[in-house]
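Annual report, structural modelling task.

Input specification for the flavin-adenine dinucleotide complex:
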Amino acid sequence: MSREKKVEQYDVCVIGGGAAGLTAAIYSGRARLKTILFEKALVGGLATYTNEVENYPGFPNKPKGEEITNLMKEQAKNMGVEFKLTDVKSMELSGEVKKVETFRNIYECKVVILAMGGRPRITGAENENKYLFDKGISFCATCDAAANTDKTVVVIGSGDAAIEEGMFLTKFAKKVIVSVLHHEGKMDCNEIAKEAALKNPKMEFVWNSTVKRFEGEEHLDTVVLRDLRTDEEIPVKCDSCFEFIGYIPNTEVVKDQIKMTRNGYILTNEKMETNIEGVFSCGDVRDKWLKQVATAVGDGAIAGYAAEKYIAESETFHEVILQKEKPGLTFIYNAVDAESRDFLIEIEKIENHFEGRLVVNRVDIYKSSGIADRLNVTEFPAVILTVEGKVRERIIGEMDAKRITNLLDSICIECK
Ligand SMILES: Cc1cc2nc3c(=O)[nH]c(=O)nc-3n(C[C@H](O)[C@H](O)[C@H](O)COP(=O)(O)OP(=O)(O)OC[C@H]3O[C@@H](n4cnc5c(N)ncnc54)[C@H](O)[C@@H]3O)c2cc1C
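The model returned the following structure:
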């Protein structure tokens, strides 16, 4: 990273201003964390391209996607979130202080939330850009099927998504014409989907074909296919075209830093944690089953909440557990385990014995395992003794109050 850039400090940097990033920012802003959100294109993300969102709970009147995301943006601003309309060029994610670099600045922060979403793969055929999203080319059957009731649609692709979404479209459209790259009977989807599709009376197939061109006045009305064997053009009249030839996650910027699937989706656990401490990911950019606004919002809420917990835990760890003023005893226990809970009484006795010359912490891993993880403690109960902010002794498993007192007496003269 270049050194001349201005450096600013934040608690949380959110990369991506779609539904997921906006929600994460609302949560972290509400937790009074100094939060900045970066967006390189449109705040609101992919949802802003959708004319009617029929399936986002609480909005029965089929609002435009941007009506929903504008409200999220307003809410984030009310929570004190700052917005930076710029492309994040690179990031340094390892270590306690993370760095996010834009064209002009470097932003240092404690937590990074990756919410860069993705983009549908397109065919690259002639005139395609003219009809993208609300002009006839769609990438989401769940979103746009109802608008094609009793209409004729073309589906591009023959993978699982294409065939399953194509089948879903037959519940609404009167005809679904599928362009397949391969020879008759060969598809990229699973056998069950293939059999069902071939039997579906509303589905027709154009084998050995690719898209050559899109045509229409304002709105798409013809997909011109090309026969791969003869090079002949096959014009197909239609009301909409659905492209299902893949989705590309926007993860180039964190490539080689974060664990991803083979296809470039970020791997997280259910707390939206990535493989790097203090780095969370949410929304379409992560490896997940259903990519929708509702699930992006759910992910974002978890990521924002997890960020707050991570920062609080980090502060407790450095300022309380590893404090340097006095020797420290940290008792890590599980409140649901009677044996470790009972030892709390012995811990209190030890605390009284040292009459304020010892800092005693009690950490219940049932509520959160973060502190235990940072101390590399995997078995409970455990006692960690620290001197001048460094771990001196670790007692794991069987607890013996006398032994702990003796150890404390011997490791630190001022405790006596
Ligand atoms: C045509 C279409 C219609 C849809 N209709 C519906 C629907 O009706 N209902 C529904 O629930 N879902 C719908 N979806 C799905 C829904 O839009 C997505 O699931 C949702 O937008 C995901 O939100 P996100 O925040 O994860 O990602 P996105 O909305 O993709 O937002 C990610 C943002 O990150 C930004 N970004 C990426 N990289 C960087 C970087 N390096 N620096 C700064 N910013 C960056 C991008 O510009 C983008 O704005 C539709 C999708 C499509 C394609």
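The chain has nine helices and 21 strands.
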